[in-house]
Write a structure and sequence with these properties.
Distance between the termini: 35 Å
Order of helices and strands: EEHEEEEEEEEEEE
Oligomer: single chain
Strand content: 5-15%
Shape: flat
Radius of gyration: 27 Å
Largest sheet: 3 strands, antiparallel
Strand order of the largest sheet: 7-8-9
Length: 339
Amino acid sequence: MPTCPRCNGDVEPETDTCPHCGADLCPACGALADPYAVACGVCGEAWTLTCPRCDGEVAPTDTACPHCGFVFDSGPTPEAAEAADAAIAEPEAEPEPEPYDGPVCPECGARIYVGDPFCASCGHSLCPRCGAAVEEEAERCPDCDLALVFVCPNCGIELAAGAEVCPDCGAVFARRCGGCGEPVFGAPETCPGCGHVLSHQVRAVARSLSKTVGGTLVRWVICPNCNTSFVPAVVACPECGTRVCPKCDLVLRPEETACPRCGEAVKGPTCPKCQAEISPGAAECPACGQPLCPDCGAAIGEDDTACAACGAELALVCSECGGEVGPEDTVCPHCGEPF
């Protein structure tokens, strides 16, 4: 699925607005678009402008809508506004939200999520598998008989059944089977449901941080191998190639296609325009030629000096000799090639 070049959230193909951060997008290639432009600066796709009142098609030179009379600079005339209001139907009332029928805390009735070891509202201990209330010192769930504690096979420390990482030795425990996708608790060698061999190993976890880019808060991770920061949706560090799960930040092995900790399906970075797989740090898609930000993989313009998605500074280079050039240069200062 295509991703937004600003926040890397999933977007539907041919959409013109990101549902997550509100960025204006080109419906053809998915690049960031100027809200007042009539063509994409990346792929050249042209589109039409519409009146914000009646959605009628207007030209870039129009100062008023030819359909309803809305004046774009100062608002509609009283006559046009009255006519437009009469023609536009009343907006439909928003549907009532569906009642919540998920799990609730058996002690206080607050909403809970299966897997939580305690209720966030009242603090009562819960079974991470079925959500039943359990006593503080209970060893097994009275409802589903799950063992509520287990011993870390690496260092011997006692842990809660849903613990993902051992705080003593750093061992990471699989919490979703890579074979059948069912939740896993404790540290069994194989999945109780399908027999798939599970991996419980000492693994590094990337640190995460947040950056504000263009007014939007974007989550980044710091590579534990070379300390390069990058957007987790890219999966692989653009500097050294270390792969990180985009969901839980666990460092992945080259051959892994699913995270052994959270079960997230993991693939390599893809081109935001044609969805072809690209190499980490690629400056151009090998399939469609779309220029890319080498830091986050977002689509960029050929003359951009900074990435609109992550803020990384971009160097312009001569296509003939590869020398760095300035945005105002008309010929390459190194080889004399005209642009």
